[in-house]
Amino acid sequence: MNYIELTVPDAMRNHGTMWSRWKNRGVPAYLLALVLTGFYILVYWFPEPLAPLASLLDPLAQLLRGSAADRWFLYGTVYTVAVLVMGVRMLLRYRTQRYHVYRTLTLMTVQLMMSYLIPALLARMGSKEFYFSYFWPLKPEYLFPSNISALVQSDNGLLMFMGFWTITMTVVATPVLTYFYGKRWYCSWVCGCGALAETAGDPFRQNSDKTLTAWKIERWMVHSVLASVVAVTGLIWWANVDPASPVAPYAQDANNVYGFLIGSVFSGVIGVGFYPLMGARVWCRFGCPMAAVLGLLQKYASRFRITTNGSQCISCGNCSTHCEMGIDVRAYAQRGEDIKRSSCVGCGVCATVCPRGVLKLENK
Amino acid sequence: MRIVIIGNGVAGITAARYLRKLSDHEIIVVSEEAPYHFSRPAMMYVSMGHMTFDNTKPYEDWFWKKNRIELMHDTVIAVASSNAGLHISLRSGSTIDADTIIFATGSEPAWFGWTGEHLPGVQAYVHKSDLEALERNVQGARNAVVVGGGLIGVEAAEVLHARGLHVTMLVRESGFYRRVFPAEESDIITKHIAAQGIDLRLSTELDRIVGGENGGRVNHVISSSGECIQADVVILATGVKPTIDLATQSGLNTDRGVLINDRFETSLPNVFAIGDCAQFEHGVEQLWYAARAHGEHVARVIIEGAGPYVRGTYFNSAKFFDLEWQVYGVIPPESDESNSVYWNDASSTRSVRIAHNNGIVVGVHGIGVRLRQETCVNWIESCTSIDIVQKQFQKAVFDPEFTRKVTV
Ligand SMILES: Cc1cc2nc3c(=O)[nH]c(=O)nc-3n(C[C@H](O)[C@H](O)[C@H](O)COP(=O)(O)OP(=O)(O)OC[C@H]3O[C@@H](n4cnc5c(N)ncnc54)[C@H](O)[C@@H]3O)c2cc1C
Ligand code: SF4
To answer: What CATH code would you report for B315-396?
Structure first.
């Protein structure tokens, strides 16, 4: 299909975005936030009421995983359907821009395959339920000794592959890919959190806070989370290497606290629950340790940047308004400066909404 | 030293920012339209719901205090000079003494005294008050007429169209923007606008505006061809003229604009004029980019005693509904195969033209194609031959990744 020919006179338009009560923090947005937050709380801590809903998915669960549907299967299914359905919306909305078409299709495929079907099939095979698209520090346990040594030292080829995959992706691929393409290779093309944000979260992108104060808070928070996950991983390893050490008894507690506060409350309940109120990248911006690592690489060791086209900027503010990461893109563009911000996930929407062709994502 | 700037548009604000960067002087900006600087070209995005009015402000409100730029939301009603210096009177009744004054009063709608131009429902689209008027005027309205086929006219048409009104556009030229665009480009834009459902009346002007029964709101307009076109809203977008009344009354030499030399000096010592309101020997430069450049340069003149302002290679850009347009250098509207290379893709909404003078490139023009300013300007300023530019054209393409290639 040649969508360019079909639809050029019909580009992405933001008509009425600011008047929609769904998109702009009206009552429906608050209700949706309540529903989403509630759903996460049930899934994590009070799954009973969800049991009948989950059992509806039993046939599908039997087919895919060979076992009855539990709350996690329900959650994974809802999540994947959200990505696929809202992904189609995304494809329609941004159909004249190949960048968005390609990355949305990639996100949808990765979510469906790597985060849904393959883990289910692995479970069915009796192997480890493994997510090939998540790495440390987003999934801290993937680099924990219990996990990694079990995998790498396994005599099962598949498990060994998982072990080497994790190590290679974390230690080699992450810095290399980020050097060439910036953080976006992960955040806007692969990551499951990114997949939901870029599809289901697209209608809410303008709700991110662009103030300087928000930027300050963001840097403190996201780097604190990174420091915590490094500390937790270090503790777990320490306890593993030297079980007699005084910190050993606390390592698992530290991991549990991290898992509860960051893994569940922040990334789940707040991260998705607050989509309609603070934009879809609340977690990615303020909490995700993977984003923090990629961000540091992007800022100091990457060819990626958003270039500004000379003096063409009219300071209109479309770019800043629709930046889901809350970057004040205009502040750079109107001074003719390139944008090199650690938080930028390279979604490319600033370049799409710019009416003067000022912004371009480049790996130069 | 105390410097007072009249007008917080891009010219005045850029001057204030650079004055602060380069000096420690006291800086006061007086402006009547809005308490804080906003982006005038962004008005349409507010009217279409892409952004809130707050989003059009390029700087957060704390910025001014932090940079010691005092903002006054007021109107300057008189400027006088005496041996003691310059004196400014404000509508609120207070007065300010100043050592230096910069006029950055911008421009205002140019209307031509049509019958009915003051009827309710008839408006311009230039100032913040017009933005507010539009919100009132579109309530319950079904038909709109936009008069004028310039850049503001097409923005007004897009806004009204986005608000669900049926829009008729009266355009004096035989093709859209034909006064500026070569025939092919004008044709692309004309077709694109028509394809949106805009009723485009070419070679047509406004004759008069007619109100409804009992002298109420506008009801219809009569075109130069005598046709009657229904209208609940009329936007007169027939251009802007420099805002100079204050300057004239204050004894500055004015013509169309406030007369200045190439260092922005007016006929009064220590009084400067920049942006839309200023008129050089060669005329006015009423562009966002020019106003910004003036603001920076006048600060350099005042603080560093900089020499003449030299305008770089011309450039401009706009968006006609979904079609972006960018230009660098000179593209004569009468361009054809003899003095330009033209490319246009199969879908015929993307086009590039490279104009040359006996093989030396003088201008680059893109519709639906983004072009890198640095590269294009460089080609033009270093008198590059058309063959080289054609061969290296990919260097100038600024389209998003994966966009189909331009093959000039
Ligand atoms: C709808 C629209 C879209 C546009 N789009 C583009 C575009 O895409 N690209 C482009 O290059 N240009 C564009 N322009 C033109 C551009 O906006 C102007 O060239 C630019 O804003 C001029 O800036 P300025 O600072 O000289 O004046 P202005 O922005 O007009 O600011 C002057 C200010 O001075 C105030 N003022 C005047 N008199 C007094 C007084 N006596 N006391 C106190 N305050 C006073 C006025 O209220 C006003 O706020 C557009 C214009 C309009 C109306
Ligand atoms: S959207 Fe484009 S023109 Fe508008 S402020 Fe951003 S970079 Fe400048």
So the answer is: 3.30.390.30
A309, B398: Cβ pair inside 8 Å?
yes
The predicted-structure confidence for A90-134, as pLDDT tens digits, reads as follows 999 999 999 999 999 999 999 999 999 999 999 999 999 999 999
Domains B2-108+240-304 and B122-236 share a fold: yes
Q: What is the ipTM metric for this complex?
A: 0.96
Residues having CB closer than 6 A to ligand 2 are A 313-319, 329-330, 333-334, 354, 356, 358-359
pTM given for the model? 0.95
Task: Tell me if the domain spanning B2-108+240-304 has CATH number 3.90.1150.10.
Answer: no
Three-class SS string for chain B? Answer: CEEEEECCCHHHHHHHHHHHHHCCCEEEEEECCCCCCCCHHHHHHHHCCCCCCHHHCCCCCHHHHHCCEEEEECCEEEEEEECCEEEEEECCCCEEEECEEEECCCEEECCCCCCCCCCCCEECCCCHHHHHHHHHHCCCCCEEEEECCCHHHHHHHHHHHHCCCEEEEECCCCCCCCCCCCHHHHHHHHHHHHHCCCEEECCCCEEEEEECHHHCCEEEEEECCCCEEECCEEEECCCEEECCHHHHHCCCCECCCEECCCCCECCCCCEEECHHHEEECCEECCCHHHHHHHHHHHHHHHHHCCCCCCCCCCEEEEEECCEEEEEEECCCCCCCCCCEEEEECCCCCCEEEEEEECCEEEEEEEECCCECHHHHHHHHHCCCEHHHHHHCHHHHECCCCCCCCCCC
Interface contact flag, A10 B377, Cβ < 8 Å: no
User: According to the CATH classification, is domain A303-363 in 3.30.200.20?
Assistant: no
> For residue range B194-219, what is the model confidence (pLDDT) as tens digits?
999 999 999 999 999 999 987 689 99
Tokens linked to B242: 């420099």
Of A310, A321, A353, the CB nearest to B374: A310
Q: Is B246 in the pocket of ligand 1 (CB under 6 A)?
A: yes
- The CATH class, in words, for B122-236 is alpha beta
A9 vs B371: CB contact, 8 Å cut-off?
Answer: no
Ligand 1 atom having least distance to the Cα of B289:
11
CA distance A357 to chain B (A): 6
